[in-house]
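Fill in residues.
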């Protein structure tokens, strides 16, 4: 099967480097996994992208990090970017075109019976919601929670295609590093500052990892909390991230939005490390409360603090077992089944 994967023009999809978010890592895994199953995979992505086994199409569009989460982009406009994608696709022949961009122009420019859009974010922006509602393409998203949110916005989503992780590559840690962990973008919706406050209240060391996405938020809310007990490791390559998560007693995810899926939570339990999080969005699907983590009411930092001690006593074997529900092979199976329906 000839498959074109269209990435968001937010960051390069480069498997050799840390990614700006879970969606970029999932796109790389999907592309590489489909290629390993014998499909011809072409990735249309920002300049500088690289994924083993795939053909990369460089349309001269640079990454635009400000375009993520519906923020206004800079540089090459998203409309120009997806106009270039649509023009290039019109000259090609693919069985399926699978787009992953959260941009109104992506939905408007890329449509038709063999086009699939996976929506990796909740319905945050009115222009994006309107464009998704009007598209003639098939829509999918990554969790039942996210599908319900889009349905509430009047957008019908056909399928749920949960993210996955290649468990054979992820080592199981022993949790004996003597610290708690946080991983994710340094931004308000991920709220690493709350993780800092919880760890300090628990008299525990904390390691933070992830790119600085919102510099003002980081400087105002996170940097003042760093110290001997709280360190910022920056963005980590996935193998380094897995080692960091695996050695942690627990991973804290105090997200301030309805997490569409929760890739960090999945990677943490794949490493055997339980997750302490607010019961929001897809996290309530990835984490089995009381087994692979502890979920508390949204914005209840005192509840997170109490949950840290509980989570540290959970079975790391059970965490790994729960992660198997989202093994990469299952993700690939689900994608192939939907591709066959579309082609």
């Amino acid at each position: 099967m000839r498959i074109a994967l269209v990435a968001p023009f937010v960051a390069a999809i480069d498997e050799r480097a840390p990614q700006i978010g879970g969606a970029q890592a999932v796109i790389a895994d999907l592309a590489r996994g489909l290629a390993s199953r014998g499909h011809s995979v072409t990735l249309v992505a920002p300049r500088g992208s690289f994924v083993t086994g795939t053909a990369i199409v460089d349309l001269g569009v640079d990454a635009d990090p400000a375009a993520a989460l519906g923020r206004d982009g800079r540089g090459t406009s998203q409309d120009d970017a997806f106009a270039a994608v649509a023009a290039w696709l019109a000259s090609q022949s693919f069985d399926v075109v699978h787009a992953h961009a959260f941009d109104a122009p992506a939905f408007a420019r890329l449509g038709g019976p063999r086009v699939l859009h996976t929506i990796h974010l909740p319905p945050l922006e009115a222009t994006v919601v309107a464009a998704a509602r009007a598209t003639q393409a098939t829509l999918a998203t990554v969790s039942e929670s996210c599908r319900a949110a889009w349905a509430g916005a009047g957008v019908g989503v056909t399928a749920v295609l949960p993210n996955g992780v290649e468990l054979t590559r992820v080592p199981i840690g022993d949790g004996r590093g003597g610290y708690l962990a946080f991983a994710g973008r340094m931004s308000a919706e991920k709220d690493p500052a709350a993780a800092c406050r919880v760890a300090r209240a628990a008299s525990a060391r904390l390691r933070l990892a992830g790119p600085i996405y919102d510099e003002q938020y980081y400087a105002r809310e996170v940097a003042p909390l760093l110290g001997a007990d709280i360190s910022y490791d920056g963005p980590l390559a996935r193998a380094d991230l897995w080692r960091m998560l695996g050695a942690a007693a627990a991973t804290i995810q105090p997200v301030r939005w309805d997490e569409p899926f929760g890739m960090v939570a999945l990677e943490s339990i794949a490493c055997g490390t339980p997750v302490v999080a607010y019961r929001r969005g897809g996290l309530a699907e990835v984490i089995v409360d009381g087994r692979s983590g502890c979920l508390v009411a949204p914005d209840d930092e005192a509840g997170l603090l109490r949950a840290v001690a509980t989570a540290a006593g959970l079975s790391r074997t059970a965490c790994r077992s729960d992660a198997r529900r989202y093994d990469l092979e299952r993700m690939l199976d689900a994608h192939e089944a939907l591709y066959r329906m579309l082609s």
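The first helix runs from residue 22 to 36.
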